[in-house]
Amino acid sequence: MRVRKPSKFTKWLTTAVVLTSVAVVAPVVTAAPASAGAYGCDGNLVYSKSVNANRSGLTGKIGTVYSYYDGTYNCSVFVKSVYVGTPTNLDLSIYKENDGTFDRDHGAFSSYAGPVEIKAPGSCVSEMLIMESPGGTLMFFGEAAPPHNCG
């Protein structure tokens, strides 16, 4: 019998289900202040993408993914543009496309999630995101940034 390796989305979905089931009892955590505009990431800004709501009939921009690269590590953050100053449940992951390894930050954040970083020279990276409103309505679920920085 051949055993199939779970896909990146299957792994991420499993993680999301676990987060959602414990989110009700998770303590409120606020984001640390940004450092030098890079939110704790080293390197140069290599990619940014506006993220629009994609769930619960909601539309419009909810934030921006910023991705930095220092020659070895990719580092990403998601900066909210809605409910800034109010803790909302966020789950941000960065994935190394060629082998599915990832780093994750999750909790209730007031301004941004991350940094998340992964050693990925020679591989594309992508970011996955879950965001809820302060009332718990799912605002975004899925790939926040397609594969990028493929070098």
Automatic annotation (TrEMBL):
<protein>
    <recommendedName>
        <fullName>Spore-associated protein A</fullName>
    </recommendedName>
</protein>
<feature type="signal peptide">
    <location>
        <begin position="1"/>
        <end position="31"/>
    </location>
</feature>
<keyword id="KW-0732">Signal</keyword>
